[in-house]
Fold each of these.
Amino acid sequence: MGIQGLLPFLKNILTPSHIRNYRGCTVAIDAYCWLHKGAFACAEKLAAGEKTDMYVYYCMKYINMLLSYDIKPILVLDGCHLPSKKNVEKKRRERRELNRKKAAQLLRDGKRKEARDALVQCIDITPQMALELMNACRDKGVDCITAPYEADAQLAYLSQTGIAQVIITEDSDLILFGCHTIMFKMDTSGAGMLIQNKDLNKAMKLQDAHYTFDKFRYMCMLSGCDYHANLPGIGLSKACKAMKLTRQIDVRLILKKIPMLLNIRNLTVSAEYIEGFIRADNTFLYQLVFDPLSRKLTPLNPYPPGVKAEDMHYAGPPMSPDHAFQLALGNMDIQGNRIANFDPAPRSQSWINDTEKTPYLLSIWDPNYKPRGQVPEGEEPTRPSTKGKEVLLQAMGISKPKANEQRRKSEPPLKPIKKGWFR
DNA sequence: TCCTAGTCGTCAT
DNA sequence: CGACTAGGA
């Protein structure tokens, strides 16, 4: 789902780019995207419950590519389901079950090709699969973090706090959560399409003075999002038109004026619709995320005055700090069962390089870790002089050694952790 | 012109 | 998940 048609709507500000332009930066990854694509390589085995690590290798192709460009990847995984999405999850489960039965019948009939097509439709990314990927990443010294709830909100938090300079995903919802810079459609070579939060006003064709990010988010939500349906007959174009025509900033008043702004007579905006809209908006603004620095739960954005966490149960019910921490580390599954014993503490003693100059290259769980911060505006990825030099250095094979590279070479083997069958 | 709902592809040989 | 598209308002 996501926001239907958002990427085509933003095509004017989507720019082709390459991840090598972010050398020395941190990139946070929506792990689900890679896991889902990687699962296609071994759909039959996964459906049959056979052991396979094909999807792990698929994901590690991307990780290794990023490491080769001296980029620090942070893998972000999904945590608990939001209460509002329980129904969606149930429907997906039922759809997978249906396709599973369909595939079994087709297989009995000897229709192997059609059976595979049905099998592919019942692919499920299990927490065990996510754990295998996390273990493979941590073997390489790559940070992983499981969000308390949706990875989307967690990725946006890493973007907004300057922990990550780029977010890699296929999900257009990340734009609404307020990420600064996102790369979509990145291939295994590192080429993709970049979108920046600061350009969204151009996509709406709104003057800077009249543009707010709130307006952009309302536009998207009016066209329908995962948390709330659209008004009948309203898509992105009409929603954009409505947001251009009003200077109102109060959500309730904007919504009440929609039929007038768009000249649609038989359209009524019910009180229920408005309240649902505001709950959805709050889910984008205040969903609970995990702050790896303070090791505490926090809303994606600070609550406005007078609002308390208890008012926001739909944006993620509060959980105990230790539960959230163990979930974030990947030691606990969403049912609360212990599934691993990863302890980030021993690693913090082992860094002896020039990490004083580059504390942002440490593990996010290291007490000395510090976010790199936002990349100065306009500095990347289109800086011709730098681009040319990088190409030249690579062609000459004399790319200067980076702290990142030295760190990886001198890294001691991690203490043994429960790894299952992955070598 | 815009919205909607449905179908197809994602890997890799 | 998005891309693409036929069909309807």
Amino acid sequence: MRQGTGLRRRGCGERLRCGRHLSYLRESGVADADISQRYPCWPMSYDHRTIEAKWQQRWATERTFSVSVDESRPKFYNVSMYPYPSGELHMGHLRNYTYVDLLTRYRTMQGYNVLSPMGWDSFGLPAENLAIETGIHPRVSTESQIEAMKGQLRSLGAVYDWDRELASHQPEYYRWDQWLFLKLYERGLAYKEKAPVNWCPNDQTVLANEQVVDGHCERCGAQVERRELSQWFFRITEYADRLLDDLDRLDEWPDRVRTMQRNWIGRSEGASFTMQVADTDLAFEVFTTRPDTIFGMTFAVLAPEHPLVEEMVAGTEVEEEVMGYRRRAASMSEMDRVAEGEKSGVFTGRYAFNPVNERKVPIYIADYVLMGYGTGAIMAVPGEDQRDWDFAEKYGVDIIRTVQPPEDFEGKAYTGEGVAINSDFLDGMDRETAIDTMASWLEERKVGGPTLNYRLRDWLISRQRYWGCPIPMIECGECGLVPVPEEELPVELPDIDDFRPEGQAPLAAVESFVNTTCPRCGGPALRETDTMDTFVDSSWYYLRYTDPNNADAIFDRDKADYWMPIDQYIGGVEHAVLHLLYARFVTKVLHDMGLVSVEEPFARLFTQGMLVKDGAKMSKSRGNVVAPDPYYERFGADAVRLFELFMGPPTDDAIWSDHGVEGTSRFLDRLWDAVTGEIGEIHPGSPTDPDRDLRAETHRTIQKVTTDIDRFAFNTAVPALMTLTNLLVDRLREGLSREVFDEVVGILLHLLSPMAPHVAHELWEMTGHGTMLATEPWPAWDADLAKRDVVTMIIQVNGKVRDKVQVDADISSDDAETIARERDRIRDWVDGGEVRKVIVREPNLVNFVVS
RNA sequence: GCCCGGAUGGCGGAAUGGCAGACGCUGAGGUCUUAAAAACCUCUGUCCCAAGGGACGUGUGGGUUCGAAUCCCACUCCGGGCACCA
């Protein structure tokens, strides 16, 4: 019992011991000494446990947020990125889910048919690694973690259409991964190839280029090795141009993400041409973005792995040296190669002809040329390329400038603009003209021509792991690679006991899985034992949500067309390239197959900031996670939600603070007390002037909260409600008319409903309303009411504020100036000087410029 | 190296050309209480002043403007992305 103001608090009042809280801590096994000491008891005005359970139950049983196609209402498809079921949500995750839930509720109240589904990216390494450690089957651990996470989401008050729940590891889902694979294969977009790949020795699997960060495995941090393996790829490069060009259409994506994708695709325009190797019938192709500098070529360089190298040096006296260099380069990671700093290379003893002037130039191999980009061979023009300059300087090769540098240029290679010199028919041309002229020259003589090149590589999808979707292919000694017939899908993942990968997929050891018959000739054959990259699973799930239980097709086109594209997609910026690029690619392929109308899946993307604690991103690996459960218990989900919204701009990183939750909890208490009549007085009389001011402020608040939510400024929408509540409390203390009280409280609860839904719903019911607040219409503001009659006009002298005065909002310019001039304080400042200019911005400001 | 973003009280932040510091937290004092907790009230950027008030103040230096946290130029620091990509 609380004393002093007569308000009842449900706290226990004991500072050091609160039986209910301590027993909760014991029962739940929450080892959070810090918060148990800080909040032995947190008295609150309302019983959050009861009302949260009540409303969560009602939203679920009344299926308030389960939706279906409804052409009569505008749709709003609201999705947060497919989460991996780690089983442990922390406050950083909740930030994301709070935003998503707020939008679901807000748009629902605005009359939209809102689809907000949830599902699980449930294949992947953590469960498999846990299985290796503990022997627990990944399915068992994954499914229990899914249940745990669902519980945490429910406790937050997050509402989803659970009828559409998906999980990648279920055969009903991954069957369509396999179907998708077969369709890509049919269209020539899936292929198997022996290629040097990134091998993670820790995870015992290959990685896509995108999953290698600074030469290390993105997941586990182990140094990645290069291996030559036969692997499955998706031909995403075929879509490089469309993926790049369509970025321009995604104008509701953050520029940052679009830039990152542009850089990742890395299109460069240039020319390629063939160079003949002297004294042999060998030839190789080079790519350059600077065909205008071709007369400056003084040598050529092949990547050490270039397929021609072996033939070029076979039987020559440099063979041993060249092949030795090649082996050393191969054994080094790209990271180390770069880290070496100084250029290195070996002369092959061979020369090639420059096609424009038939000049013979020496051919080197050097590891600064990468096999994976362009043609793996370059023309070296040290005059205009710093890398080539460095190499030429070290190995004593000629340097010819073919672009005139400015007179004061003091650097080495000149890469800027200038006219061509020492370049025969290009001399005097500017860069652009010279590039075009040379490209056509090459084309006319059939030695080359304009070429586009991409940094983007094909998507390597094979993984030598167990807990993933099996690749539905069969290798037959007679027929070669044969796809599994569609009607035999899914190829189910067999149950196994030993999950240890030993250089090959664990499935390879499962004879009953591997041995099969060829669907074409009926002879004995072997199944593919690699599984797919989990990014395949997450590249189309949002389409499946639109028709999640379809047993005959991946999804129904009409349903997908109704819901797609996603109107709001929310997730972390860490997926800016990987997931978002793959999903865009797969959507385009499905579009090309005639399965869906949209070409871009995500109309509007929002990337939220990280949550920081102790100076680092909140993450399990850093050991600084704040689990939500003890906070739900003490403050309730609504206070947690409000603080998640309040803590800062959603795009920015934010810092977790226990005290912040105390603040939002106090706010809800104050609101509760005000609405339930615990504070002040409500009288039946007609509204007074201050009552009408409160009403006006309420309508201004509708406007502010509405526009703030629309611009994702949740951190200012919450304070708007706090301010209004504070004003309401002030009015109540002096006595407020019933009429105004009812209107203000009604509006306040509507505005609060998407942010703190349990308290809002309970209070809505307690104030005598039988309707479900969640489906009440969002309030509209009355512009006349919201308009201010009187405003504060500031009066400046030489730009400094010297006085303020209340004036009518529709004051004329002349009146404003007259009033300002007549103020005593202004006279004091103006007297003795000459007023040279008066700036009037009625009704807000008058500024006297005095000398 | 290149590209992008950021820097505002003791803290999170607000203000997008017009009252800098909304709102919240923290801290100090007070009311109530035997006492504490909770709640409530007052104060809480720095400096000067008995007071009324004044000066300074949004990373640093310059500029534009009647007026700049906000626009422009240069710099410093922090964060992110890309990087022998021909």
